Amino acid sequence: MYRYIGIEDLVANALIEMMRSEEANRRISVKTLADYGTVIVRLLTASGQNAILFLTKESTYEFVHDYAEYFSIIEHENIEYIELKDGVQAEELRRQFRKNLTVDLAKALTGEESLRALGISSRA
Fold it and tell me: pLDDT digit string (tens) for 56-112?
């Protein structure tokens, strides 16, 4: 059986960790998100799971559309970002997007190697 890791697994969790490091971190580039997803898949695969990263431009736009109350897509200097909307706090993201995480996925999303992929060198 395969575990598919998609945009819905990555965006909010990445932003939660980035905001934990520095509250002003309210956006993530699509490329950084892909790098983060690659690390998550590698960690899950190393633990014996068959994980596949499913991250497409279409799935990204669909996700942002479905969760428009939380996120928007912006472009800055020809780089595409997913940005947390003003007024949305990390605790809201935790309630909405972390409620059904398995323990192994939660560990992969918040592990040291995963945080490095987000540009976070250590826990704040």
Answer: 999 999 999 999 999 999 999 999 999 999 999 999 999 999 988 889 999 999 999
Taking the CB of residue 39, how many other CB atoms lie within 10 A of it?
19
Residues near 72 by beta carbon (within 8 Å), at least 6 away in sequence? 64, 82, 83, 85
Q: Please, what is the end-to-end C-alpha distance for the chain in angstroms?
A: 36
Question: Which residues, in sequence order, are CB contacts of 107 under 8 Å at separation 6+?
Answer: 43
CA–CA separation, 19 vs 59, rounded Å? 24
Q: Whats the size of the chain, residue-wise?
A: 124
Alpha helices by DSSP H, 47-89: 57-66
Q: Is 108 left (phi over 0), alpha (psi -120 to 50) or beta?
A: alpha
In 10 A of CB 65, how many CB atoms?
Answer: 10
pLDDT tens digits for range 40-54: 999 999 999 999 999
Cβ atoms 82, 71 nearer than 8 A: yes
Q: Are 13 and 94 in contact (CB under 8 A)?
A: no
